[in-house]
Amino acid sequence: MACRQRTKTVSFYYWKTRFRLDSLEKQALFTNGVTRLYTRYFDVDLSPGDSAPHIVAPISFDTSSLPASIVPVVYIKNRVLEQLDSTRTRQLATAIQQQVKDISRSVNISPREIQFDCDWTATTRDNYFMLLRQYKILTGQTISATIRLHQIKYSARTGIPPVDLGVLMYYNMGDINAGSSNSIYEKGIAARYAPSIKIYPLELDIALPIFAWSLQIRDGKVVKLLNKMSFLHFENDTNFTAVTANSYAVKHACFHGGYYFKEQDKIKTEHVTAQSLLDMVAQVNAYSNHRIRNLIFYDLDKENLVLYDEAIFKKIMDRLD
Amino acid sequence: MTKLFSKKLWIALISCCGIGGGIAFACADGWGEEYGVSNFSPEIFVDSAYSPFFYSSMFYYKINFEENQHSRFNDKNVQEWAGFFKGLVSKDALQYFLQTATDASIDSAARWVAGKSAPMPLSVQSFNALKQNNSLQLTAFFNYLQLAKKSEAFALNDIQEPWNTDSTAPKKTYAGAAALNRDLLTAFSKTTDAFLKERIWFQLVRSYFFNGNPQQAIDLYTSTEKSMPHNDIYFRTLAYTAGAFYKLRNFSKANYYYSLAYDGCDALKTVAHYSFHPQEEKDWNATLALCRNNDEQATLWQMLGVFYADEQRAISEIYRLNPLSDKLDLLLGRAINKYEQKFTYRGDAPSYMPFDTSAASKLPALVTKIATAANTRTPWIWEMAAGYVNTLDQKYAAAAIWFARAEKSIPAKKEAQAQLRLLKLINNVGQAKRIDASLEKSILADMEWLKNFDASTMPELRYRDAFEWIKQKLAAKYLQQKEWVKSECFYSQSAFYATNKNVEALKIFLGKINKTPYEKLCAAFCVTSIADLFEYQAVQLTYADSIDVAIGKMLKAGPAAAYVLPGNPFNGRIQDCHDCDHAAAQKIKYTKLSLLQKIKELKDKLNAGTDVYSNALLLANAAYNISHFGNARFFYEGKIIGLSPSSPTSIDSVFRSMLTGMEVASKYYNLCLQYAATDEQKAKCQYMLAKCQRNAWYFTTIYKEDNPYSDKPVDFIAWDGFKALKQYSNSQYYKEVIKECGYFKTYSLKGR
């Protein structure tokens, strides 16, 4: 029997507050035929001492020549939802719509789609879903929402968001700590959640991690998260000694990447290998029944792209059933 | 469930780090000082200009976040202008024009000075005399102000909070920049007065920094700075030049200039801290290479040591460069304050392990090395620090030697003397294997000193942790030596009161007339008085139903005996409702003493066989009500037992069974039942007995840590009283119970 399938695509998230692509990032979009770039527009959070939601750190575009169509992404901090009622929800939806419009207008675009990102919980789900419905009524746009692994597994408790499409975030599944586990992706942990994909009633895209970071550890405790610092930042620096495949010891105190490292500090690097990305697709395939068509990689940044072979994104897409 | 979190987590993680990225959990277990536990006061020996950088769990010591960005130079500025006018203009007038006047009022004042407007504006009244004598100076002032006021448009930036929607939008450019820069440059070239010239120079460099090419700011600064005096204005100009280098990503120079500002101007120390950001080791080395002398290098190492929490490395480097450097002091203070976080004491009981020595550190070796060399500017501080780290490491004999050395060169300043005295006392108590008469004698004066210490006369001295620890340590030692009374004096523990022998011994000790000075000290520390002890004994005897003796003790309990109980202790309710009893009208209000006297009266009647049922019922109700479950639980509240907690599990274990016991109440309810004549009376007794049985049951099951009913309902237990009550189902009392007690109702329905 013939069955109508969406075409498989590769996309990226763009998660910086200034939109400015370098050549490697442009190249990645071009090579992978990326037509949609999921771009974080702003966050919504409460300001200290004030229970009213505020727009936080909106993006600014350095250019109006955009290499792909932009899908705005709005991150809603869960605590914003704790204090909403129906009137304030309507106000918030309007404020978000206006801010999205303003930002889009600055680069002469008018996106017809939006994505909401929120780690909502059982207690905030009603308010969150009310906001999503309100936004739909207001704009009539296609709405997608990020879904975290716990939300897919415990959907009876956390609910199914009233959106056109979900994006399953297949990462951030462990604690950030000094131990040996990887907080970004652990195959074993993922395996406990993946079967829920099968029965999840929403159409899903999937978001895969290509970001890397490191943890600075002192006296057995994480003292800093070194954002965007992958193993590449330590492997050829004589101030650091490799201890294991993903950890270093500080041999000589030094400045590096804007951080200061004290002698005897430990560095735990975390990133997702190409093989792990392929494992993820295999895990998803086992339960997706060919439903997943769009892969969105988090995030488009040359610091991340250099960690992989140029062809990896196509390869992963090809493995997707 | 595995914790899953947002992509944004790093923001939260990063923002929780304080100065230097060091993490201090000193106050993790409650409200404490921002420096955690400390006996070593940097306030006493470190220049107060460094105070924001003292070790703290806050961002900056004492001030946390700085909020004086726009005002930090105001006072100094007014003062300097007053000097310019040689005191001929009031400071208020200067303050008005320098800080609050609008463009319009400055313009109108300038017109008046230039003779262009006849009526004198009120604001310039105090300039009038000056105008007659030296109008050139005035003209220069207002001409300068007009330019400076324009600069406020871009120079006074409020701190951008992340929730301001335009926080990431490119800053608006100042439209009048070109004209302003031109005017400033002209004024700078023309002005010959050194005071004015330097200020215009500052304005111009700042304007170039905000509005022009950063290189212009750098060029102007470097070509002219040699002719300027090294005052605050100079360093403010230098700091903008540092910012210009930063804009050009010349981090090594930017950081070097920030270090000069940090060292040269106290008001810019925190500014430099915010802005100092070496990126790579090569930047850092290049910054070091820019230094013209060892002292400049020492400043950089101090900044590294403090801002990036690597005090020991910084101490080693500065000491290598110049052992006499005063930049060592702040680092030593911070290093010791961090190290002494191992100095712990538990708040709940004397601890036999005052020091946790698990954390390995090279600090003692470093401090000892420098103290031994005795070649710093202030050897006594290092000797004192060497002594203290030895104390912390429980090497008391070595510590004592260092303290003795410090004593020889310590200045006579009372704060320094007090610091050493405190550390010596800690060491003296720490080293004691047992507390004997000679030790008591040796610490007596010091303990009296601490006891009577008036912190307002020396707020710098951090003595409270030491004082508390010493008392606990002494208490613990006395406990080991079985000197219970002295132990109790220094650190009160409920267990002491479990034995009446201890209570009597304490009474004797407190009542002793010819106390030695040390005994007087102990007695002064003791938290309980003789009256408290009598009250406690009266309460104990009441629960043992020895009312006659209890009355005798209560009579000696002082004001406590007259404490008025809020409810009628002789009431017996179906449902315990303390609030209802407290709110109810009462003809007779009972005090602790009069309650006992009334109980005695009832007991006498009972013994005489008078109206046994009624009197037994009243006695039973009273016994019930003075227990934890009753309306008169205030009866037992006092200095020793403390206040009654809401849950019986929170009652101190020493007193718990006494205060929750139902034996006396049950004894009298049983007697009551025995003499009950009617079904109404019998029903009441049975129900009351059921309440006693229930309370006892709860106490032995639900309120135990391994509560077997934690996840089961308990609504099914058929108390003996409930079973017996069923036979009186025709009584009015039974009906009331059914109405008021859902528990019994449930039970009674089950039986059907």
Short recap of the structure:
The complex is a heterodimer of chains A (321) and B (752). Chain A has 321 residues and is of the alpha/beta class. Chain A is built from eleven helices and 18 strands.
Q: Would you write up a description of this structure?
A:
The complex is a heterodimer of chains A (321) and B (752). Chain A has 321 residues and is of the alpha/beta class. In chain A, the strands form 4 sheets. In chain A, strands 1-3-6-7-8-9-10-18 form an 8-stranded parallel barrel. Chain A is built from 11 helices and 18 strands. The radius of gyration of chain A is 20 Å and the shape is globular. Chain B is mostly helical. Chain B has helices at residues 9-15, 42-45, 74-84, 91-100, 103-113, 128-133, 135-155, 177-190, 194-211, 214-224, 232-247, 251-264, 269-275, 281-290, 294-307, 311-321, 328-339, 363-373, 379-392, 396-409, 414-431, 437-451, 464-480, 484-490, 500-511, 517-525, 530-543, 547-554, 578-583, 592-607, 612-625, 653-660, 663-674, 679-700, 720-725, 732-740, 742-750. The two termini of chain B are 46 Å apart. The A-B interface holds A 15, 17-18, 43, 45, 47, 54-60, 75, 99, 117, 119, 148-150, 154, 169, 172-176, 189, 192, 213, 219, 221-225, 227, 239, 253-258, 260, 262-263, 298 and B 1-10, 13-14, 17, 21-23, 161-163, 165, 167-170, 277-281, 283-284, 304, 308-310, 313, 359.
